[in-house]
Amino acid sequence: MPTLLEQIWSFTKTVAIAAFLAFFVIRGFIFEPFRIPSSSMMPNLLIGDYLVVSKFAYGNRLPLTNFFFWERPVERGDIVVFRRTGSGLPGSFFGLGPTLFIKRVVGLPGDTIAFRDQTVFINGQPQPSVPLGAYQPELTQGPSVQDAELKVENLMGVRHPILQKAGEVGPTVAETLIPADHYVVLGDNRDNSRDSRYWQAPAWGFVPKSDIMGRAEFIAWSWDDQWMPRLERVFTNLRATHDAR
Q1: Residue 221 needs a FRET pair 20 to 30 A away by CA distance; which of 16, 126, 141, 229 works?
Q2: Residue 202: is the preceding peptide bond cis (ω within 30°)?
Q3: Which of 95, 32, 62, 83 is nearest to 185 (CA)?
Q4: How far is C-alpha 107 from the geometric centre of its chain's CA atoms?
C-alpha cells in the first residue's frame, strides 16, 4: 500500500499534469492573452494593455495544421492577432518562431482596395472619417501621437476611432483586388504603423487566413509605464461598431 508521502506525490503529479494540459487546451483552442507592445493601434489600444484574444472566433484550427473546423468568416473592422515571418523582430515563443502582430481588418477577400491622400478606398469608394479634434494622449504614450487628430473612420458601415496627423503625406498604394482567403490590415495610428501598406511596398501586403491566430475581444488589464493600473480600461470592448444591417 502506498505511503502517505507517495499518495501526496501521486496526487500532486496528477494535478500538475491536468493543469498543464488545461493550459494548452485553453490557449490553443479558446483564449490567449496578448500584450500591446507598441503605439500602432492607438487610440484604441495603449502600450501596457493586456487583451483576451478569442482563438475560436473564426473556427478551431486542427493542431499543427492550417485546417479549420466550424469555420466562421473574418469581418471588416475586427482587430486580429496574426503571425508574420521575416519581420526581423523576435518571435512570440521565447524569441523564436514567427512574430505576432495586432492590426485591424480593413479589406476582405474580393474587395478592391487602394490607399492615397490618407484615405482608404474600397471598391472605388473613399471611406470617410469625421474629425473630432486634437488627440489628448497620456503623457507616457510617446511622441508618435503628438499633434495627431482624433477621427472616427467609417469602413462601409463599420465605425472606429483612428489617429492621423494633418499634413502627413503617407504612402500611396494602387487599387488591387484582394485574393481569396487573404486580408488587408491597418493600424489605427495610421502614421505610425507598419502594416499592409508597407510590407510589399509599393504593392499591398496581405495576411492569409491561415496566419490569423484570433480576434481581440476585450482589455483584461492595463498598466502605464509607471506600473500604475489603468482601471478605467479594464473590460473595454474591442469590437467595432456596425451600422444597422
Answers
A1: 16
A2: yes
A3: 83
A4: 14
What single string gives the DSSP state of each residue in 179-195?
PTTEEEEE-SBGGG--S
Q: Which amino acid is at 195?
A: D
User: Residue 240 has what DSSP assignment?
Assistant: P
Query: Mean pLDDT in runs of 10 for the chain (245 residues)?
Result: 58 47 43 81 93 81 61 90 73 60 97 96 96 78 74 94 87 96 96 94 94 91 88 91 69
Asked if residue 177 is part of any domain, the answer here is yes
Burial (CB < 10 A; 0-12, 13-18, 19+), residue 194, is middle
DSSP letters, 51-112, are EEEESSBTBEEPTTSS-EES-----TT-EEEEEESSSSSPBTBTBBSPEEEEEEEEE-TT-E
Q: Do 48 and 41 touch, CB atoms closer than 8 A?
A: no
Calpha distance 184→109 (Å, rounded): 9
Match 480576434 to its residue by C-alpha cell.
215
Q: Kindly tell me the burial class for residue 167, based on how many C-beta atoms sit within 10 Å of its own C-beta (0-12, 13-18, 19 or more).
A: exposed
CATH number, domain containing residue 148: 2.10.109.10
> Which pLDDT does position 16 carry in this prediction?
46
Catalytic residue IDs: 40, 103
Distance from C-alpha of 30 to C-alpha of 209, rounded to nearest angstrom: 18
For residue 227, being part of any structural domain is answered with: yes
Domain limits for position 221: 7-240
Q: Residue 2 falls within a domain, yes or no?
A: no
Q: How far apart are CA 165 and CA 149, in angstroms?
A: 6
One-letter-per-residue 3-state SS of 112-123:
EEEEECCEEEEC
